[in-house]
Amino acid sequence: MRKIVNILIASVGGQGGLTLSWVIARASVLDGFSVKTAETLGMSQRYGSVMSYVRLGDSVKSPLFEPGEADYILGLELVETLRRIHYASGSCVVIVADEYRPSYTQSIKYPALKTSDLVEKIKSLWGRTLIISARKLAERAGSVRALNMVILGVFNAVSNLLSRESIERAIREVLPEHAVSASLRAYELGFEYAQQAR
Amino acid sequence: MTLNSDILAPPGTRVPLMGNEAIARGLIEADARVVVGYPGTPSSEVIMALQPVSRQLGIYAEWAVNERVALEIALGASIAGVRSIATMKAPGLNVASDPLLSSAYCGIDRGLVVLVADDPGPHTTQTEQDSRWYAKLAKLPMISPSNPQEAKDFTKVAFDISEELGIPVILRTTTRVNHTVSDVVLGEVRRIQQDVKIVKNEVRFVRAGMAWNLERHKWLNSRLRLAEEVSTKYSLNSSSGRGEICVLTEGVAHEYVSEVLEELRLEDRVKVIKLGLLYPAPRKFLLENLAECKTILVVEELDPFLEEQVKAILHEENVHVRVYGKLTGHLPLEGELNKNQVRNAIECIIRGLTPPLTTRSEHTLSPQDTPPRPPPLCPGCPHRFSFIALKIALSIRGYKLSEVPVFGDIGCYALAVYPPISMLWTEHSMGASISMAIGAKIAGYTKPVIAVIGDSTFYHAGIQPLIEAINKNIDILVLILDNDVVAMTGHQSTPAWSLSESGRPLRPVSIESIVKSISPDFLATIDPYNLDEMISIISEIVDRPGVKVIIAKHPCALLERRARKVEKKFYVDASVCRGCKACITATGCPAIVMEGNLARIILEDCNGCGLCTRFCPYRAIKLLQGDST
User: Peptide bond before B42: cis, by omega within 30 degrees of 0?
Assistant: First the structure.
């Protein structure tokens, strides 16, 4: 593999973007990688624009990477993914939930968008995009809050970077106890979905 | 915060830790016994990580009422014989600066470390303060890690240096170290004999004796002069590569420099000098390592702190080398550094070009495609009720919102600055809401003046300004928004709690009793969810003479949601909704979104406060019947 894999996670505060970055980081260390994460958060507890970075490889120094350097963009929300699409490197794979959270600004200032418009917009900007019905899969796993773990499942099926064992352990260690079983199930559903889609 | 049990893993284990968790582990390894601080991003997780295990480890890890109290507690513990640390974000050190400067004169007995977390960017801080200047101001050694591994290791070193020099040591971090998760190899947990005793010594501890103060100042300077020598054995500073071009760097900037040099394949042509001891800059080490350098580029976050120090040293030693950095325009004086900027600066030096090089063009979308997402108050947030009540009450009394200044303070409620609430005029420094409102009145402002302050901020720095207001008979309305928690920084305890996060029993101190005891002209405690009562009381008292205090008391919606399930939820009846957006423009609740031409409530986000139902002219928002989860 290449020396460093750069993963960018785009989400709305409260969706579990940070949790996703911590699960990937933890699983990476369990699998023997060197890892660094970072995030831009803003001031609110919830509903702000959140971007997290995860970098893994043999030896990772900087916690940040630059626009044009992401190998994977994991989007938990469509507008936030669009906002960060310029981080994609030439070979980047964009994996995004078909989840649309209009912001206050959107609702007040601009004509309402449809989810399908956003999907088309992202696809037109980036060919290697996988749109995932993550909410449906998360609901099937037992909790819509496990949407982030669906995306993790797809990511790992596509990237083949991390071991199943390490991911499971990381989920158990990072998530609160009551969320573990739905998270594991959501991961599996995402993973299977990606394999079938191939 | 869920415990990362890895902070207790055996020595030699390689585990993923956030920088702040690594510092917590460093405190365990260093056998620190007293860990106090005040919550502030990005410093809070040090204490949060320790608290679940602190009592079992015999560590006192608790929040103090503010940073100066925290530092004074840590100082008291240190002179009583135990290793102590005070943790805070950058503005917290301003609050604690009084004891910081005095603590340098009295010195310490057991190691005393002050952790200050700066926030280049800034991401979550009111200023881009460079706290490194405090080291120079207080004449205290400062060390700074580049990554979580060093954060842990340097925490230990800070205690050792503090004890060897007999003075406090400042451990300075930045967001990209505090909040970065990385693989960290754990070290031995030391047990150090720490006998509790205090030795009376007026010369050291009493600053009322001017001759003593002069003597202690000389003593302090003599200790500081030993800093480089004492710290040498800890390998805080390092150099790599060789060449006539030298990059001098520190903190996370070192990580950017290393990667950029690797990418440009310049590792063999450029020498990198990394400092862990930032103050006093290690003169001997620098002169030895800069001996063959013809050009120096200083890469550091925030101010040209090292740049100025190294220039002074070179000048004093009569060494003629060009020094580039922030003062020469190679790197920016504001904002957080990134790899592109560092790459540009290095390329400018290598190719002998004048900065700035053009940065790579970024792919940009129109704001219509990606509208900004200003951070809102959460669904069900009690602050939303308080601000809307204030807005309505002022309108009822015939005031224009543009003529009644609302002085705000630091906390979630500052988010009321954003539309549609748009009710906050200022947000300054802890406690400034009440004091600035007093100033406006004293200046002669005739219309009502309002101060809004949160519960934790009131305990922290709001009590004295309220005393001032009452004592000087100022005509102001003070709203204390009491949500029973330090919400913005991640739900830490306040002095109103009866049990701390570590499980320590506390004696609750009530805001109401405090306020009552200083006798304002009016005092009421209201649940802001009773919007009509809030409106009627505010409109009744807003222009009465004297100090009026309303405690708007309702728990943080997130906390309440966690404590008990959301009992009810609301939905928009699509057959009734006409898409007028009144629910959104009145409340700004992020659980309500426009979908197509109609409003929709995101069910899993609704906390059931029902505020939106009051503003729908068509009664389209209805209570959801049946299972609401």
Answer: yes
The parent domain of residue A12 ranges over 4-197
User: Among all residues of chain A, which has the CA nearest to that of B415?
Assistant: A44
Alpha-carbon distance of B54 to B68, in angstroms, equals 22
Residue corresponding to tokens 């705000």 = B408
Q: What is the ipTM of this complex?
A: 0.96
Q: CB-CB: which of A42, A61, A104 is closest to B259?
A: A61
Q: Which helix (H) or strand (E) holds B34?
A: strand B34-37
In this predicted model, which residue has the larger pLDDT, B157 or A115?
Answer: B157
Please name the residues between 583 and 602 in chain B that touch chain A, using a CB distance below 8 Å. Answer: 584-585, 588, 590, 592-597, 602
Window 49-78 of B, Cβ < 8 Å to A: none
Residue to substitute from A84, A107, A113, A172, interface B, most B β-carbons within 10 A: A107
3 state SS of B61: strand
pLDDT tens per residue across span B86-116: 999 999 999 999 999 999 999 999 999 999 9
Residue A111 main-chain phi, psi, to 5 deg: -60, 145
Contact A35 B181 (CB under 8 A): yes
CA B170, CA B278: separation in Å to the nearest integer?
A: 10
Look at residues B349, B27, B39 and name the one whose alpha carbon lies nearest to residue B192.
Answer: B27
Is 80 exceeded by the pLDDT of residue A63?
yes
Q: What angle do CA B490, B146, A167 make, to 5 degrees?
A: 60
Q: How confident is the model at residue A1 (pLDDT cuts 50, 70, 90)?
A: very low
Tokens 């840590």 appear where?
B74
Q: Among residues A76, A74, A60, which one has the least CA distance to residue B180?
A: A60
CA atoms of B531 and B537, how far apart (whole Å): 10
A chain contacts of residue B16, beta-carbon cutoff 8 Å: 22, 25-26, 28-29, 35
Contact B421, B377 (CB under 8 A): yes
Helix, strand, or coil (residue B457): helix
Measure the CA–CA gap between B461 and B434, rounded to whole angstroms.
10
Please give the residue of chain B at the shortest CA–CA distance from A34.
Answer: B183
At residue B2, does pLDDT exceed 70? no
Task: Determine the Cα angle at B571 with ends B567 and B574, to 5°.
Answer: 165
Please give the tally of structural domains in chain A. 1
d(CA B93, CA B225): 24
CB within 8 Å: A42 and B604:
no
The sheet with strand B142-143 has its strands ordered as: B60-63, B34-37, B84-89, B112-118, B169-174, B142-143, B277-279
The encoded tokens of residue A166 equal 């390490």
Q: What is the per-residue pLDDT across B118-139, written as a single tens digit (0 to 9) for each? A: 999 999 999 999 999 999 999 9
Contact (Cβ atoms closer than 8 angstroms) between residue B550 and residue B511: no
Cβ distance B542 to B589 under 8 Å? no
Domains of chain B: 5-232 (3.40.50.970), 237-351 (3.40.50.920), 382-562 (3.40.50.970), 566-623 (3.30.70.20)
Residue of A nearest to B256 (CA): A62
Contact flag B368-A110 (C-beta cutoff 8 Å): yes
| Dihedral of alpha carbons A60, A65, A70, A74, sign | positive
Enter the tokens of residue A162. 């991390």
**Using an 8 Å Cβ cutoff, are B520 and B547 in contact?**
yes
Number of neighbouring beta carbons within 10 Å of residue B602? 16
Q: What is the rounded distance in angstroms from the CA atom of residue B80 to the CA atom of residue B66?
A: 21
Three-state SS for A2?
coil
**How far is residue A27's CA from residue A184's CA, in Å, rounded to a whole number?**
13
- Please give the single-letter amino acid code of residue B2: T
Which CATH number fits the domain that encloses residue A157? Answer: 3.40.920.10
**Structural element, H or E, at residue B14:** strand B14-18
